[in-house]
Amino acid sequence: MNRLTRITAILIQLQSKKVITAQEIANRFEVSLRTIYRDIKTLQDAGVPIGSENGVGYFIVDGYTLPPVSFTEEEANALIVAEKVVLNQGDTSLQQEFNSLLLKIKSILRSSQKEDLSLLDKRVSSSFLVNSVPSDSLTHIQKSIAKNQVMEIRYRAIQTNNITQRKIEPLALYYTSKAWVVIAYCQLRKGFREFRLDRILQYKTLLEKPQFTDDFNLQDYHSQIS
């Protein structure tokens, strides 16, 4: 990768997160920290408003926007694979949001790229064995996790089919071979519980402060229960 391409990619990476460390950028491009410092200085000298905070990282000052992004052929092709995976995962809310995103992305592709994607779309499948169970709450639960919100749900238990009303604090999500699962702090049980999204009958977000205020690490959680 030449330097100009790397600097452009660094600018896009800086806009992808609120704050990013020089080490994260260096790891991505497999270059030294000194090289990244030099590239950041080049962007700053070119007028890009990049701020920094010692011990935290770099950030783009609010209000700065990039010119329209272009995609390589390989990046455009990756969209098709991602689309097939999303369509096969069962949650309709995620499918709707991804389709909306994909339309926006496709609208800025070149005509030749659109033709290639159309052909590729007919010849890629994530699986012919669709075992996913349907759900429709994934995007709402994602939002609750991001904003640290409390949700109230009606839930049908897998083993007993009993229906309970619960207040949960969504903490993380993962996908099994057929269903999405939310890991949450359950106010009814006073501890962590897992809820399959296809078993959630009703849900709503509440204007309440969460009871669970500790840090939650998904990797640590899985290592403890495995």
TrEMBL record:
Cited SUPFAM superfamilies: Winged helix' DNA-binding domain
Ranges where the HTH deoR-type domain occurs: 3-58
Keywords for the protein's UniProt record, in alphabetical order: Transcription, Transcription regulation
Source domain of life: Bacteria
Pfam families tied to this protein: HTH_11, WYL
PROSITE patterns according to UniProt: HTH_DEOR_2 (PS51000), WYL (PS52050)
PANTHER family, per the entry: PROTEIN PAFC (PTHR34580:SF1), PTHR34580
Name the UniProt record assigns to this protein: YafY family transcriptional regulator
Source organism: Flagellimonas spongiicola
